[in-house]
Amino acid sequence: MRKRIIAGNWKMNKTVDEALELAAAIKEGIKTGDKIDVVLCPPFTDVTAVALVIQNTRIGLGGQNLHWEEKGAFTGEISAAMLRSAGCEYVIIGHSERRQYFHETDETVNRKIKTALSAGLRPIVCVGETLKEREDNLTERVLETQVEGCLAGLTAGQAAEIILAYEPVWAIGTGVVATVEQAQAAHQYIRDLLFKLYDRTVADRVRIQYGGSMKPDNSGQLLAQPDIDGGLVGGASLDAQSFLDIIHS
């Protein structure tokens, strides 16, 4: 049985003081009986502050991105070692906004995954199609290309450590949510791809999150699906009660 995982991607939101308040409220509201993994992914400027709030709890900490090089002249970037030293255990890689606005590719995502794994970080790797690609019936082709490209050269053992997040780009920050049937179908297709690329053990072990406008009013139905193992939550993670409601669902 795969353990559920709910991760909050705060994106470019929250000052240090605001992050402290939000993290404290989430920490206070998590029930001891919640047998799931919870991860907070604040902006880099908030990581150390949030780490102090959630230390000695079951809440994990993640970065929103990293560079594939260990160090060097890469102004504005952050390394895996920096994330680790700040207390991170996870890192989001290949989010659709990174692909859209900063031209990340499956190749760069693949390099970042390998760097993260070598540093002991668990990657949350995002894949998903645009609205035009869905309308053109290209969803499966896009997912196959992205999953194969992102996992290129990884062993079965490495692949099993990755968390995948299916994020239909057309449902991110738009308020539009994939239907339960659409979401489950995409997750099942991704799991079948993992079986094709590796074996049943890897396919059964990898957790796949839904990442397209998950909210308290739809999280229960989505998380009840057999291949949806959690959520990569954007806007709803910026409000403590909304995020807690998703966790408790």
Plain-language structure description:
The protein has helices at 16-29, 47-54, 80-85, 96-102, 106-118, 131-135, 139-150, 156-160, 180-197, 200-205, 216-223, 240-248, and strands spanning 5-9, 37-41, 59-63, 90-93, 122-127, 163-166, 207-210, 230-233. The chain has one domain: TIM Barrel (Alpha-Beta Barrel), CATH 3.20.20.70. An eight-stranded parallel sheet has the order 7-6-5-4-3-2-1-8. With 249 residues, the protein is of the alpha/beta class.
Task: State the main characteristics.
249 residues; alpha/beta; TIM Barrel; 8-stranded parallel beta sheet; 12 helices; 8 strands; 45% helix; globular
Task: Reconstruct the topology from this structure.
Layout: E1 5-9, H1 16-29, E2 37-41, H2 47-54, E3 59-63, H3 80-85, E4 90-93, H4 96-102, H5 106-118, E5 122-127, H6 131-135, H7 139-150, H8 156-160, E6 163-166, H9 180-197, H10 200-205, E7 207-210, H11 216-223, E8 230-233, H12 240-248
Parallel strand pairs: 1-2, 1-8, 2-3, 3-4, 4-5, 5-6, 6-7
